[in-house]
Amino acid sequence: MADRIEISIVFFVYMFLMMGIGVYYYRRTRNMSDYFLGNRKLGAWVTSMSAEASDMSGWMLMGVPGFAYVAGLNAGWIALGIILGTWANWHFVAARLRVYTEAANNSLTLPDFFENRFMSDLGMLRVVPAIFILIFFILYTSSGFVAAGRLFETIFSLPYVPSLLLGAGVVVFYTLVGGFLAVSRTDFIQGVMMFFAILVVPVSAALMLGGFTATAQMLYATHASFFAPLTKPDGSTLGFIEFISLMAWGIGYFGQPHILVRFMAIRDARELPQATRIAMAWVVISLGAALLVGMVGAVYLRTPLEGTAAETVFLVMAGELFPPIAAGLILAAVLAAIMSTASAQLLVAASAFAQDIYRRSFRPAAPQEELVWVSRISVLAIAAGAIYLGLSPDNFILDMVAYAWAGFGAAFGPALLSCLFWRRTTERGVLAGIVTGGLTVLIWKQFAPFGLYEIVPGFLFSLLAIYVVSRLDAPPPQAVTEAFDRVDTGDGRP
Q: Are 321 and 208 in contact (CB under 8 A)?
């Protein structure tokens, strides 16, 4: 009981600190650019840590360790795909997106950029992408709330639903109040916390077992298949389709709005190389440690974790390894991970509704103050939908994330790459790609033919739709191609 009280104190101090940051930045949020992009004033460190913290979330501290707990190095293929995708996103997309979004009438959201890129006033390139953003972000945010529910359930022995509501309430509060500035600053703090927490748990457990050599020997004696990356938990060999499905997580990065918006917010594109190095170091070390958590946990924990409980391996190990105050700090990092991604997703989804649906379709002349308040109301509504979807405690966090990840990757990845790098891309082609990719994921997921991860057909069909429709369509107007050429040569740099 005393241990639980000490852990509770640490948690509440942390939550009040994060909410305090939200209140502070409430007073500095005056317009839509402030609320959604922090007025493009983020430095390299905040940009990189915010991007990775909003990316990884509870699935890195719970989903990946849970997979490694039952599959060993077989779970490493997801990690490898994520590392390669992260590098490609920072290396090829970040700088060009930062320059092009500001050159394209200071675009604040992805749908905003799609429309401004083609100098269109039809509205479809705002409304249709915004609808897919709302669909997949409600599911994605729900996965974060499920992780929060499982966290509080594990630590405090609270019922699942009150735990879910408590975690969601904290995230909603500081997203609602502070906007992008609060979210990005708290993401920086949370990214640091996540990094150290994911390192200290497997290292401490291995030392308790006699060192890394002794731990590896114990693993080999009891879970020899853990060291065979092509062997699945049931002992069968990983097939080609399954291998492609695991690696395909990487292509999803090109379409994740909550990550891409960080590229748009950096102070200067020239700071992106430094931000890339910081981000890649964080990702490689953190994902490697996440795999170790699951594998070491398989021999460190005496009571096996079954079913969805496998995703609590990090939580259980932290509680057993450390005294209450230290355990509370480490477990607060899990809450940090959940809060960082869920808040970023809520913010992007709210911006899609306010900027791309409400303003475009209902109130074109709405003042900035009104749009900020519409965004805040949208946060509440979207969070309510996410909470509803997360009410079942039987959901696997990694499965929920995989579905939303595929939806964004297929709907927006090919569209964004085409807008940034293919001069011949047309407005109708991009619209066809977004609809094709999003619908393919929604339909493929229901039937799952061949066991192929839905992002693969979604991404490929989306690319094909963009190419075919753009080729059949009339070439884009001269003003559009000239704007592309200015960005392409660097003359479009703001």
A: yes
Q: Which residues are within 8 A (CB) of 447 and not within 5 positions of it... i.e. 6 or more apart?
A: none
Instruction: Report the alpha-carbon distance of residue 60 to residue 63 in Å, rounded.
Output: 6
Conformational region of residue 17, where left means phi above 0, alpha means psi within -120 to 50, and beta covers everything else: alpha
Spell out the residues 6+ positions from residue 362 whose beta carbon is closer than 8 angstroms to its own.
none
CB 105, CB 411: distance < 8 Å:
no
Q: Which residues pair with 237 in a beta bridge?
A: 231
Tens digits of residue pLDDT in 203-239: 999 999 999 999 999 999 999 999 999 998 888 999 9
pTM across the whole model: 0.86
Phi, psi at 14, each rounded to 5°? -65, -45
pLDDT category, 494, cuts 50, 70, 90?
very low
- CA angle in degrees (0–180, nearest 5) for 417-421-425: 85
pLDDT at 342 over 80: no
What number of other Cβ atoms are within 10 A of residue 5's Cβ? 9
